[in-house]
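fyi for ur records
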Amino acid sequence: MIFDDSLTGYLSFLEDPSIPAAKGLPAAQRLYQILLAPVEPFLPARVNRLIVVPDGILFRLPFESLVLPGTKAGTPEYVHDRFAVSYAPSASSLDPVGTQQEDRYSKDALAFGVSNYPKPPRLDGGSAPLSPAAVLDDIYERQGFAVESLPHVKGELADLKKRLAPGRIDAYQDRGATETVLKALDLKAYRLIHLACHAFSDDSYPLRSALLMSPEVDDREDGYLQVSEMYDLRTNADLVVLSACQTGRGAIIMNEGNLGLPRVFFYMGAKSVLSTLWPVHDDSCALFMKFFYDAYFRGDGKAEALRAAKKAMRGTKFAHPYFWASFTLTGRF
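which gave:
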């Protein structure tokens, strides 16, 4: 009962930046005592990385945001101050040491971003034929999926393009970032795939969860890259970055784990996925990605780069865990 109350309260705190950060510390410390303190005596002193295989609702808990006991509100010591944390969907999914092979890529990165979305028309029950896109717009809107502009996506893609040599990155933005274009690309060619767009998680029907692309000109596609369609795509990417709302969250089914977008990208062939557990602000997300890529392109490992970005965010106006704890890395670190 104490665990359930602490977990529920802490998850609610994480998703609400209006709650002062200090109010979340007691629950964060209690959860640390319950979940991590029992294994601490078994960790060698030199260990600086944790791989978490969650179960049930723990898929929605960012373990690195838990707080070590004895720290004060003004200077909390988070788990990520001590460890670089990543996640695995199951113990069997972990690569044994020495089995990872170096892949060859013809391109360093694919950047795909949508900053402007037109407001979808509401269905009024008229007799005019409806496009598949209009039907899906209505389904998602009725489930509370709000589509707003993401103005900082342009800067996010521009920052990524500046980091790579011309010809080593393919970038598609707004009108060029359509479902048709993405499906036509050879996704195995890219070491890094960065997708900056809206995402919708449908817990009642996971196969309908989707990434929202730019609207099509001729209705060849509906603009929603749904999970059911993603299973037909293949990639070899070392890292897929889902810079979108709530991309790591999905339905949780007994003995199946989390059916969110990261799991789909693993099926497609990705080695690791950086995603979010709850909706993130466009401006804070762009800054987080800058910090992450600062570390990533200087040679830090993926988990270490994520750790560096979270620590950097704590020194800005986005210090509340809401702004940085949402980002988690699943797969190879």
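The chain has two domains: 1-98+299-333, 107-279. thats all i got for now
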